[in-house]
Structure formats: structure tokens, C-alpha cells
Design brief:
Radius of gyration: 30 Å
Number of strands: 11
Largest sheet: 4 strands, antiparallel
Mean pLDDT: 84
Structural class: alpha+beta
Number of helices: 8
Helix content: 40-55%
């Protein structure tokens, strides 16, 4: 009978301990909603998988998982896509080194029906993080410059593409590419399109060199 009387005194501390454990777990769960957005990021908050709000740099609070989810894309980071070539051993850095040519991407037809190999890079930043994360119907890599460059090269003469028309080609390709990306809601801002190398196909490169040398000889003789 004495043991039976002591049972309530033994069960009460156990019940209190469980209660405090539950309180601690709830507190930890609530505190897990605190997050910090760095200066180079924007916070995109989803509530039950649906876009709810965008927040700037600094400390913030979101209802813990699974109620709200936070994505923090780096909106100030300059990213780079290569078309017609791939940098070897350097990733997507801005340094130039040994490149691996991709003729299936670089081969383009000029306005005077000549084939030219165009290697270029596209630098861009995230302009609209919501579109970039959730509304893109195709990746940036699939729309990054090749259609725009083909159209611009198709409206240019080969002499212009190989010599003094490169700056104009870069400018027109940048403007056209931005229009294409906005149309597809990719959510990025094109910073620059930079031609890395423009040259005729290997099979006719010697002939183009002969033509260039002849023109130089002509200019020298006239002078």
C-alpha cells in the first residue's frame, strides 16, 4: 500500500519533464525561422509553396518549415555563359586560357552567305529573382546568346564580322538577347556580350589570310 501511495509522486515529475521537453522543441522550431539575407542576396519567401514576399538584406523571420521556405539568390553576382567554346580548367571565370572549341555552336552564316565561327561569352545578373527561380520555362544556358548572335551575324557581312564591325555586333547582340530573355521571363539582366574569337572555318582560313594579305599589299602600294 505504501508503494501504491508513492506512484502519483513518481509520475508527476515525469509528466512535467515531458511538458518542458515539448516546450523546448516548440521554441527551437520557432527560432529556426530566423534567417539573414546577405547584402549580395535577396530573400524570396514561399508560403506553402506559393510566392509570398521578397525581402532585402538584413535579419528576417519566416514561419518555420514546412509553412514557409526561403530562397536567397545572389542578385549582384555576375555570372557567365560561354557559347561556341568552353574554358578548360578555369570554370566560368573571366580569365582566358586554353579553350575547347564547339563548332556546332560557333558555326554561323553571315549576310553575304559566308560561314564564320563565332565564339563569345555572355555576362549577366539576376534582375527578377522570382522569375529567375520559378517562372523560367527554359534555362539561361539555352537562351544565352546563340539565337541573338545568329540573327545579328546573319545581318552582317563577313568582312565586318572579322574586322571593324565587332563592337557593333556586340551591342546589337546584347540588345536583342535582352529582348529574348524578357520575352521568356528568364529574370536576368544582360551586362555584356563579348566576342572572344571570330574566324573563318579551318578549311578556308588560308584563303582568307591570302585575301587579307592582298588588301594590306594594296594599301601599302597606294600609300
Amino acid at each position: 500500500s505504501d508503494a501504491f501511495k508513492r506512484l502519483p509522486h513518481l509520475s508527476a515529475p515525469a509528466g512535467g519533464k515531458v511538458k518542458w521537453i515539448l516546450v523546448a522543441l516548440v521554441a527551437v522550431w520557432l527560432l529556426s525561422g530566423i534567417y539573414i539575407v546577405n547584402p549580395d542576396e535577396e530573400g524570396v519567401v514561399l508560403r506553402f509553396g506559393k510566392y509570398d514576399r521578397t525581402v532585402g538584406a538584413g535579419p528576417h523571420y519566416a514561419l518555420p518549415f514546412p509553412i514557409e521556405t526561403v530562397y536567397k539568390p545572389k542578385v549582384t553576382q555576375v555570372q557567365r555563359v560561354e557559347v561556341g567554346f568552353r574554358s578548360v580548367g578555369q570554370g566560368r571565370t573571366f580569365q582566358q586560357g586554353a579553350n575547347r572549341s564547339l563548332p556546332e555552336e560557333s558555326g554561323m552564316l553571315t549576310g553575304d552567305e559566308n560561314i564564320v565561327n563565332v565564339q563569345f561569352s555572355v555576362q549577366y545578373q539576376i534582375k527578377n529573382p522570382v522569375e529567375y527561380l520559378f517562372k523560367r520555362i527554359i534555362p539561361v544556358e539555352k537562351t544565352a546568346g546563340e539565337p541573338a548572335m545568329r540573327e545579328v551575324i546573319g545581318n552582317s557581312l563577313i568582312d565586318s564580322a572579322l574586322t571593324d564591325g565587332k563592337l557593333q555586333i556586340q551591342t546589337e547582340a546584347t540588345q536583342l538577347l535582352q529582348e529574348i530573355l524578357d520575352r521568356y521571363k528568364v529574370g536576368v539582366r544582360v551586362i555584356a556580350v563579348q566576342l572572344q574569337d571570330v574566324h573563318p572555318p579551318k578549311e578556308v582560313s588560308d584563303a582568307f589570310k591570302d585575301v587579307a594579305s592582298a588588301r594590306e599589299d594594296k594599301s601599302r602600294i597606294i600609300n
